[in-house]
C-alpha cells in the first residue's frame, strides 16, 4: 500500500505532466519498467533487506513510474543523469538512491548498457584499494553492485587515514575502531554489520595477500557477523528434507518450475546464481551431465545429473517452459519471456521452504548437500570441487560434524 505522502506526490506529478501536455510514454516501455521494479523489489526481499528499506525504495520507484509514464522515453533514456535530474527537480528530492540501485540491478542483469553514476564514486582510490577490488572481481566473483558498495566504505576509510596521516603499514586496531565509531553513527545496526565485514575483509587482504600490515587486525573487529560465524552453517535434517519435498506441488507452471529449481539446489548443491545461469546448451540428457560454468573459481565443471533432477527438468521443459529465443533454462512465465535473476530463483526456493515452516533460505539446501557428501564419505577435497570453492578454507566453513557420525567414530555405534 502506498503511503498518503507518496500518493499525493505521485498525483501532483501526474497533474503537472498533463498540464504541460507532455508526450505519453510507449506503454511497452512503461510495462517493462514496472516488471523490472517488481523483480527488483522481490530480489530485495529474497536478499534479506528490511521491510522499511523496501518500502522506501518502492515509494521512490513509484514516483519514477509516474514520471516515465508521462514522457516518451526508451529504457536507456530513463537511466540517464539528465532524466534523473529532471525528476529530482519535479519531486524536490536531492537524492534518489532507490533509482540508482535499480539501475545497477538492471545493468547486472544485462537489461541496460550502463548504470547511473554517482559523482562521489568517480574519484579514484589509491592503487592498493584498486588492487583489492580487482582481487575481489577475480577471486570472489564480486559483482558491479558489490564493488560499488565496498567503495562506499573504503573511500571514507582512506579519507580518514589521510586526514590523520596514518600509514596502512602502521595501522592499529585503535585507529580502526575510532574510524568505525565515527563512520557508523548514521547507519542502522544491520548496515553496520555489513560494512564492518567489508573492512574486516580488506584488513585480512592487507595481511594475508599483500603482507602490508605487520599483524592481522581482521579478527579484532568484533561484531554480530563475526559471532554468527562461530555457529555451523544451517542445514536441513532428514525429516525436514522429507517435509520439504512432500510439500512441493506440481499444480501450476510456477510450482513445476520451482520443483526443478529445488532439485538442482538440493541434489547438486548449486547456488541460486548458478541455477539462474544454466542454459539449454549446458544440459546433456544423453550423458546425464550438467555443465556449470558460472563458478566462483572461474573453472567450469561437468556434474552428473541425478535421475530425479533429470525428471524434474524434463517436466519443466516439456510442460512449462515457454518458447523463446533465450537459451537460458529458467524463464519468466509471462511475456516477454526473460531469464530469471539469481534473486528471483532464491526467492522461489526460499518461499516454498517457508511454506513448510522451515524458516530456511535457498543456501540451506547447498549446506545440506555438503553435509550429505560428508556423510557418504567424500573427502573435503572432493566436496571442494563439487561446491566450486576456490580454497579449502571456504569448504571447511560449510561442513558441520554430524552428531551421528561423531558417535560412530567415538563409540563405534551403528547409525
Short description:
With 415 residues, the protein is mainly α. It has helices spanning 4-19, 27-46, 51-69, 75-78, 81-91, 97-108, 127-139, 144-163, 173-183, 189-208, 224-228, 238-247, 253-268, 272-276, 307-319, 342-355, 362-375, 380-387, 392-398, 403-411; strands at residues 283-284, 289-292, 301-304. The protein has 20 helices and three strands.
Low-confidence stretches: 224-230
Give the overall shape, derived from the CA principal axes.
globular
Q: What's the architecture of the largest domain in CATH terms?
A: Orthogonal Bundle
Helical content (DSSP H or I, runs of 4+): 55-70%
Arithmetic mean of pLDDT: 77
Q: What is the name of the CATH superfamily of the largest domain? A: Intergrase catalytic core
Main sheet properties: 3 strands, antiparallel
Radius of gyration: 24 Å
Structural class: mainly alpha
Count every beta strand, where a strand is a DSSP E run of 2 or more residues: 3
Helix count, DSSP H or I runs of 4 or more residues: 20
Strand content: under 5%
Helix and strand sequence: HHHHHHHHHHHHHHEEEHHHHHH
Q: What's the arrangement of strands in the largest beta sheet?
A: 1-2-3
CATH class of the largest domain: Mainly Alpha
Cα(first) to Cα(last) distance is 53 Å
Task: Provide the CATH topology of the largest domain.
Answer: hpI Integrase, Chain A
